[in-house]
What we know:
8 strands, 4-stranded antiparallel β-sheet, globular, alpha+beta
Amino acid sequence: MRGTTPRRMQGLADPVLSTMVHDLGLEEVPHYASRSGKVVGYTDRWVENAKFRDGPVNPQRVEVTDRAAMTAQVKAKARELGADLVGICRLTPTMIDLGEEVPHEFVIAACIAEDYHKVLEGADAVEEEAMRVYAACSDLATELAAYVRGLGYPAWAHHNGVREVQAIPVFYQVGFGELGRHGSLINEKYGADFRPGFVTTDLPLDVDEPREFGVQDFCMNCNVCMRNCPGDAIPEEHVVTEGIKRWLIDLEKCYPYSRLRDEYCHLCVDVCPFNVGSHRTTFKTFMKHRKRIGYKTPKY
Ligand code: SF4
Ligand code: SF4
C-alpha cells in the first residue's frame, strides 16, 4: 500500500525552519544544538533500534482460529512490554507517508505515558522525559514486531528511528481520542502526554473504532492553549478535513519559541486542562517558573 500523506520534516529539512535559521545567520537550529547528553543518548537508542525493525519470520506459523483471542494476546504482550495504550486498526494510505510503501494490512499502536510532574524540573526536563519515552517506545515497537514475526507473520516496527506510519490518523482510528486545538491528539486518561510506537503486520487481528468524548466541542469554548501560546501561533479558526476539525499551527510564529531558543516550549500541551487533570498543584508551581522566565500567565 502506498502512502498519501506528506510528513512534516524536522530540523533543517523543514523549509520554514531552515529559512528562519538562515535568516538569523545561524548554521544550526538553536534548540537542537543545545540538547543534553541524555537526549543524545535516547536519540542513539532509536537509531540503533532501527536496524532491527524487520527480521526473519518464523516459518512455523501459528494459525489464527480465534481472532479475538489473538488480539487479546498481542495487546497483552504490548502491555507487558510497557504500553499504557494499545489499539489496532486497518492500515489506509492516509496513515502512510507520501509515496512510501508498507505491505501490511494492520497497524498496532502502542503508547507510553509521560510523567507530567517533570514540568517542575523545568523545560529541559520535560523534553528529556519526552525523549526518554520516545526511546522506550522504540524498544517496545522493536520487541513487539519481533514477537509477531515469532508467531509466523511479517511485521515492521515504526518509531522515531524509522517509520512510514503517521501517528495522528492512526491514533484517531484506534480510538485513543480526538485532535485538540493545540494540534496533538487528546486521550481521556493521559491528555496529550504520551508518545507512540507502531507495528504494521499481516497478523489477522480485530480492529478498534474511533472514540470521541467531546474534546473538539470542549476546545471550541476553552482556548486556554491559544490564549497562552507565547507566539500567538494557535488559531481561533479551524478547517474541517474528513469530518474532523483541525486547528493549523502557524509555524513561523511557533518556531521562535519552540526551536529558535535553547529551552523547550511545549506550553500549549502543558497548560491544556486534559493534561493538567488532577495535577493542579504541580501545574501552578510549574507556571510560576514559566512566568519567571518570561511566559504569559495562563488564563482559565
Ligand atoms: S510549542 Fe509553544 S509557541 Fe508553539 S504552539 Fe505550542 S505554546 Fe505556541
Ligand atoms: S487547552 Fe483547551 S482548547 Fe487547547 S487543546 Fe486543550 S482543551 Fe483544547
